[in-house]
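Residues pack. Consider this:
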Amino acid sequence: MTVIDDYLARLPAPQRDTLIHLRDSLRELLPAAEERISYRMPCFAVQGKAVAGFDGFKDHCSYFPHSGSVIGEVDGLPTWADADAGTLRFPIGKRLPKGVLRKLIRVRLDEISSVVNGKRFEFFDDGSVKAAGSMKDGELHGAWRWYRRDGSLMRTGSFDRGERVGEWQTHPRGT
């Protein structure tokens, strides 16, 4: 059993069953993510950043995007859910639609990718890394790597303040 399994096992049956379904949906949508505890609740994280958290409470269950700006960016939230800046509360026994989860995840992944100075990751919809490199003042700077959906390395190259420099390599599949 994992730490998440242990956590969910301690919840009462109605909340546990609702959250197990949510966890299964998140696993399907974010197969590349790490499951862990963050802010004392189960969550899915990519590159060390929490993307989707969840927990059960006496009268509801909650989804947490680990950001105060994600929920406001997503259209089509269920009318039976109650949302504020950092939490999407929903009734025990209700299932958040995968389409809504997909939108919440995409907005959070894009937010994580919005680094303007320092290490930046760009993600495919499943949370796997699409590109990784450094940014300086909003421009690509230093070594960058791009990956295919299967995780294989596709291209490498470097930038100096947004300008391509040095030798670039395209890697055939399987290398």
